[in-house]
């Protein structure tokens, strides 16, 4: 039986997000700058609602932080009140919210700056692309707070940076800079301060131009293929490739290339 605290987790607080539409991109700003965008129950419920009802015309999502930081992670003032049962419910609630990012219909890009800590890092890990400005830094202070990651971090982060690096972060409190982060897989992009949002928007507009089936294959099939045993993975790949190339959109795009009507692939 859930107690009052666990049930309260489902009440969304819309003021904790700033949501906007920029062309085909939905932008979601974490909006608790005075609390360094710490993730409280109201924000998590609002994020879930926002990701559940993505309008049809949206082709990409950008998640960013309002203020100087992406997110300081779990709102520790709420943690104080939970017992074990509520803690389990809370963790699984976070899993469901971050699953909505990972399994979103459209690519999700996280624009990172300042603190990307604990649950904030877990949120970023669920996105498909991470863009970090030079100010971004990554930490998992759960170890020193006597807790453990609970938002899918132990599943997603080792796949990006490795178990040993994550264990070191949790055991010793090691903090990685944005420059180190791009080398070790925390982010795919490293850019100058003040430009993470614009870069994420640019990438959002870029991925919005892809064939929807390509984005579907990359978001839904690729991660499962990568986790499957090789024989299963190869079969899944063949099936996905066959479905994608039989789509009219693919035929149109390949025809355009053969007719010299599309840009060539050049070094950037
Ligand atoms: C918070 C939180 C928070 C800030 N929960 N209130 N996360 C952490 O352990 C990170 C804790 N936060 C920090 O280390 C620092 O706040 C920052 C490095 C992120 C920013 O420092 P600074 O000097 O810019 O700000 P500040 O003065 O420390 O914080 C401003 C306010 O935000 C202050 O509240 P105020 O009422 O005194 O103004 C802080 O208490 C508040 N604040 N971070 C609650 N996290 C699913 S499991 C996931 C587990 C985790 O995420 S553990 C990691 C938690």
Automatic annotation (TrEMBL):
Pfam families tied to this protein: ECH_1
- Gene Ontology biological process terms from the UniProt entry: fatty acid beta-oxidation
The enzyme's first-digit EC class, named in words, is lyase
Q: Which CDD domains match?
A: crotonase-like
Write out the entry's keywords from A to Z. Answer: Lyase
Annotated GO MF terms: lyase activity
- Domain of life where this protein originates: Bacteria
Please indicate if the UniProt record lists Lyase as a keyword. yes
Query: According to the UniProt entry, what is the EC number of this protein?
Result: 4.2.1.55
Q: Which family, according to the similarity comment? A: Belongs to the enoyl-CoA hydratase/isomerase family.
Protein's name in the database: 3-hydroxybutyryl-CoA dehydratase
